[in-house]
Amino acid sequence: MSTTSENRDRLVGSDRVLAVLIELAERPEGATLEQLAAAVDSPKSTVHRALTSLRRAHLAAQLGRGTYVIGDEFLRLAFENHAQRPDRLAVEPILRRLAERFGETAHYAVRDGAEVVYRAKVDPSSGSVRLTSAVGGRNPAYRTAVGKLLLSEAAKDASSLAALVGEGPFEQTTPHTITTLDALWADVVRTRERGYAVDDQENELGVNCLAVPVRLGPDAGVTGAVSVSALAFRLPLAELVGRVDQIRDMVGAAA
Fewer CB atoms < 10 Å away: N or C end of the chain? Predict the structure, then answer.
């Protein structure tokens, strides 16, 4: 069926509504009509119509003096969905035990193309420095332990790895970050051989990480990765690697 001009306009309109919603979600303090129009590069009249649709669905709300924020219904839907996701329900108890056992932050992540997405995170109850990672947040796979673990499952050779993450060079965020495809492939091979991945202060200076695979269900393949992220001065990488069998045993209890 051919796409008519009316259908194209409708698609563009829905894209603009989503763009406004995303922009609002990035601004918890709220935004004015003028700010939103500039952010999504659209006329104020178009953005106002988008806001009207969002407010009608209670996905946006207007505060005093023309400031708009995400609506309570959007938050309800997001929190309810996250709370009931099967993988989170299966993995979060193990993250709690890891966080308490090691006194550091535990993550569960999945791969989305060249990035990892954090589906769950648990900080220890006391004694830790809170990391900048957030549930729903993303990082490039090439510089995280969870990412390299999941790349080792997906990439069978250097060519397929390049198809996933690009040819490089990769952005260097710390002096330890892997920046070439050859070096990344060598790390992916080591990860596959030993069954765990490490991030030696490659994503965030002063923070190292060890990740192992997660298989949710008795016959499931690798569905994600769980990591323990530790401050390097408090739990050096060599010590973390020395406890990999403990981490494997605890994560295996989630399957």
Answer: N
Measure the N-to-C terminal CA separation of the chain; round to a whole number of Å.
46
Contact 128/164 with Cβ under 8 angstroms?
Answer: no
Q: How many structural domains comprise the chain?
A: 2
Residue (of 226, 187, 232, 240) closest to 208 by Cα position: 232
pLDDT in tens, 190-228: 999 999 999 999 999 999 999 999 987 666 678 899 999
Q: Is 152 exposed, middle or buried (0-12, 13-18, 19+ CB in 10 A)?
A: buried
Sign of the dihedral through C-alpha 150, 126, 175, 132: positive
Name residues whose C-beta falls within 8 Å of residue 26's C-beta, 6 or more positions apart in sequence. Answer: none
- Looking at the structure, tell me whether residues 144 and 116 fall in a common domain: yes
Q: Answer yes or no: do 23 and 115 share one domain.
A: no
